[in-house]
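Predicting holo structure, flavin-adenine dinucleotide bound.
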Amino acid sequence: MPALKTIKNIAVIGSGFAGLSAAAYLAKAGCSVEVFEKNEDIGGRARQLHTTNGYFFDMGPSWYWMPDVFEKFFNDFGYKPADFYDLRLLDPEYVIVFGKDDVMEVPASVPALFRLFEGIEKGSSDALKLFLKEAAFKYRVGMNKLVYKPGLSIREFADAELVKGLFRLQVFTSLSTHVRKYFKDPRLIALMEFPALFLGAMPEDTPALYSLMNHAGLKLGTWYPMGGFGKVVEAMKEVAERQGVKFYTEEPVTGFNIRQHKITAVQTAFRQKEFDGVIGAADYHHIEQQLLEPQYRNYSPGYWKGRVMAPSALIYYLGVKKKVKKLKHHNLFFDEDLKVHAQQIYKQPQWPTKPLFYVCCTSKTDSKVAPAGHENIFILMPLAVGLEDNEDTREKYFEMIMNRLEDYCGENISNHLDYKKSYCVSDFKSDYNSFGGNAYGLANTLRQTAILKPSIRNKQVKNLFYAGHLTVPGPGVPPAIISGNVAANQLLNYLHSL
Ligand SMILES: Cc1cc2nc3c(=O)[nH]c(=O)nc-3n(C[C@H](O)[C@H](O)[C@H](O)COP(=O)(O)OP(=O)(O)OC[C@H]3O[C@@H](n4cnc5c(N)ncnc54)[C@H](O)[C@@H]3O)c2cc1C
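Done. Tokens:
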């Protein structure tokens, strides 16, 4: 893109991955960029929690998938991730606990993965080869032709390879049907369907196109940035600052001055300042429904009510004064019925009766996240959005999950805690202005994909574009980084057109 004729002043609302990415790209293109963040720390849902007794926790993301997206971001600015943080490949990538003595370790090496499959179901290693070949095709086409598109018009997708590959991309088949064509064993099905949970929807409601995530997980590897995801946040902030971006924390945006369908000034808690363009990288629903007057909104409250949101979560951050032998870095507890829990998230929203949960123990890989001889444990239970949460409910689930975890580990954990904090729906709402207390944004269902997602462009306000996990391409850290890039390009196109 050619340089802008004059320097334009841009405000970015929110400093999550989408805001950081948009800010860095806009500054590189010659804009003067200021980021306003309501919280004390940068990073949004990927903030870190530092305790006074030597633990630090990633508050949100813990799975570093799709390393190519991170590489692209840093390469675009002349760097590579290794200039800022040390990435480690996890092996096993993760374990799935189906029962106390029924645990599947998912290896990082593909030949070992084939052996694992064959040992569980005869002939399934050949099926896996075919499955992964198709998933690699979807990943390549998806990354090159789909996810970096703004999703403003169907014409963006009028591409020979896309049209030719439409059948193979399986947009209209569900991931659940697709997986069952290849595998019969329920454990293999669970392993192959699990990435749909990253996309915030049930495998039945997720297009098989997203088996590209199986390629991401099983072929590209599960990585860990030493020091945690917070290191990635720091690195992206550093890149943005080197481009000249300025950050203002504890300064929420509270509204806009709009004249002739353009934002002329942004109001924050402390000032009012003129800007030529705005990237709304806080939750889309909050910007639309709380910061804009009704006549400037793309969507009505009814539209938002009809969206399928990705789940919220009940989280525990735990410091443990001893080592817990049986835990690995990533542990998925699939020892109860996924269908029942999923129903209670999406179809009849309620507190789950027998929840599945996930335990992350970063201290297995990183000695700095906990005092010597201690463990740093993060437990996450997916939950329907919009539920009421209180201390009693959090405690009830803590006991339920701890009982299952201790039973699996064969040792007591709860008597050895020297740090414990819970986090739930009401915290997501108050900390991030999250719609319904969602953790991961908007679900990637067929009816909420590409041009069917909330538009990246405000149709009434010409210089306002949205970024983040409620617009294209969807939930997760890599999509948030891509979203910031795409929104920045859209705003630049607009500025060039003036
Ligand atoms: C518990 C959890 C686990 C996850 N695990 C993974 C994982 O393992 N791997 C993965 O890839 N993804 C994961 N995700 C998803 C991923 O973290 C998010 O999709 C991504 O970080 C969203 O980035 P974002 O920039 O869109 O939004 P956010 O990170 O929420 O950033 C938005 C920012 O806007 C700020 N803001 C809100 N209102 C205002 C206002 N009025 N003025 C100024 N600022 C405002 C908020 O404070 C926030 O900092 C997880 C998320 C959660 C919550």
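The CA atoms of residues 98 and 187 lie 8 Å apart.
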